[in-house]
Design brief:
By secondary structure, the chain is α+β, with helices and mostly antiparallel strands. Helix content is 33%, strand content 25%. The protein is built from 10 helices and 16 strands. Strands 2-6-7-10-1-11-12-13-14 form a 9-stranded mixed β-sheet. A 3-stranded antiparallel β-sheet has the order 5-4-15, with no helix packed on it. Strand 6 and strand 7 form a beta hairpin. Helix 3 runs antiparallel to helix 4. The longest helix has 20 residues. It binds adenosine-5'-diphosphate and magnesium ion (MG). The site of magnesium ion has 2 residues, from loops. Magnesium ion binds next to loops.
């Protein structure tokens, strides 16, 4: 039997606003516990949330960049659950009317270009954090992260391998940093991925039962966790078992996924519209304004590299993975001449990238300047 994998991703993108989504408290990372916990995050009685305009602007930006529909009327809902790091007893999120719907993102895997549909992106607040370290068995609550603005970006179940899922996640990461709506820092939790994975016999129309791997914070873990999960599900079914819908965690030390909770004890969040917040109405002029401020998008620049320089989709995508790489590459081509664009691409993506990687240097810190690399390319071109 051959199996086909089905993957859908839910990605939490932390927006890089100065203040929180419903209060003026700072979003700065790494402060003393609760230094950035205002009366709103502490949920003191009678306190009301006030929407941060910049969060909306950044959500519109991503929506436009995904070619999505911006819902001009969207609604905030309460997602109710109890947790010590959530003093209100609910998270403010969006259920039926998210700000962004029906977008798409192009990915390249090998020679194949594929479009992945983005179901929705909704605004929500992050929760606080429970702290156990150094507290002698007690638990501390740090509300600094509470109220940090997030966009949860949900894909259709259209990826068919771990490689495609990683390509999608990288494309989204590239886009949100390109747009400057997220700092992209995965170690600090600014970009967190949940992977929904199922398998089905090749040719079968309906999907298999999925398991959701929560909170992956690196592309390598995403790849490893999905690959492990696929094999685990196939082995289970081939041994006569059945996959139960469940939430699982990935353990980087063992490389395995293990169940956290099953569908049976899944939460009933009792969502309802938040009476403290009016529906958000976005006028067309605002959307037009944001559209006017959009930079050239990586997909457009990639298309230009393919059209003007004859680069492959793969090369063009790699060179537009970040603004910094794209700018460096353009500087090399400007100095070496468009006729050498392909050689420039090979050097930037090949030798230079490998050496920078080894030295753990960002391209902005490259000891070889774009002009110097262009000089090398020119000497290669004239057979010196
Ligand atoms: P929930 O809200 O319960 O998490 P959704 O229907 O919103 O469920 O789906 C969440 C994610 O799971 C989406 O990214 C979707 O593409 C993906 N997904 C849904 N069904 C499957 C499946 N059978 N296999 C893999 N992924 C799936
Ligand atoms: Mg989910």
């Amino acid at each position: 039997m051959t199996w086909e994998t089905v993957i859908g991703l839910e990605i939490h993108v932390q927006l890089n606003t100065q203040s929180k989504i419903f209060s003026g408290a700072s979003t700065a990372f790494g402060a003393e516990p609760n230094a950035h916990a205002s009366v709103v995050e502490c949920a003191l009685p009678g306190v009301l949330p006030v929407m941060n305009r910049e969060v909306v602007a950044k959500a519109i930006k991503l929506g436009l960049a995904l070619g999505a529909k911006i819902n001009q009327k969207n609604v905030f809902d309460r997602k109710n659950y109890f947790y010590p790091d959530l003093p209100k007893g609910y998270q403010i999120s969006q259920l039926d009317l998210p700000i962004v719907a029906e977008g798409r993102l192009e990915i390249v895997v090998g020679d194949e270009v594929k479009t992945i549909n983005v179901t929705r992106a909704h605004m929500e607040e992050d929760a606080g954090k429970s702290v156990h370290e150094g507290l002698n068995g007690a638990t501390g609550i740090d509300l600094n992260r509470a109220g940090t603005p997030l966009l949860e970006v949900v894909s259709e179940p259209e990826m068919r391998s771990a490689a495609e899922a990683v390509a999608y996640a990288k494309a989204l990461h590239g886009l949100v940093t390109w747009l400057d709506i997220c700092d992209g820092n995965m170690a600090e939790g600014s970009f967190r991925m949940d992977a929904n994975v199922s398998v089905r016999p090749k040719g079968q129309a309906e999907f298999g039962t999925r398991r959701e791997i929560k909170n992956l914070n690196s592309f390598r873990f995403l790849q490893q966790a999905i690959d492990y999960e696929i094999q685990w599900q196939i082995d289970l079914i081939e041994d006569g078992g059945k996959v139960q819908q469940a939430t699982v965690l990935f353990d980087p030390d063992t490389g395995e996924t293990r169940a956290m909770r099953s569908k049976e004890d899944a939460h009933d969040y009792r969502y309802f519209p938040d009476p403290d917040l009016l529906p958000l109405v976005i006028d067309s002029a605002w959307i037009a304004r944001v559209k006017g401020e959009l930079p050239e998008l990586p997909a457009a620049l990639s298309g230009r590299f393919q059209g003007e320089y004859g680069l492959s989709a793969y090369d063009a995508t790699t060179l537009t993975a970040s603004r910094e790489v794209a700018e460096y590459y353009q500087a090399v081509v400007a100095a070496a001449g468009a006729a050498n664009a392909k050689t420039c691409a090979n050097w930037v993506m090949g030798e230079l990238a490998a050496r920078l990687n080894k030295a753990e240097l960002d391209i902005t810190a490259s000891p070889v300047s774009a002009a110097q690399l262009a000089g090398l390319v020119a000497r290669i071109a004239d057979n010196t």
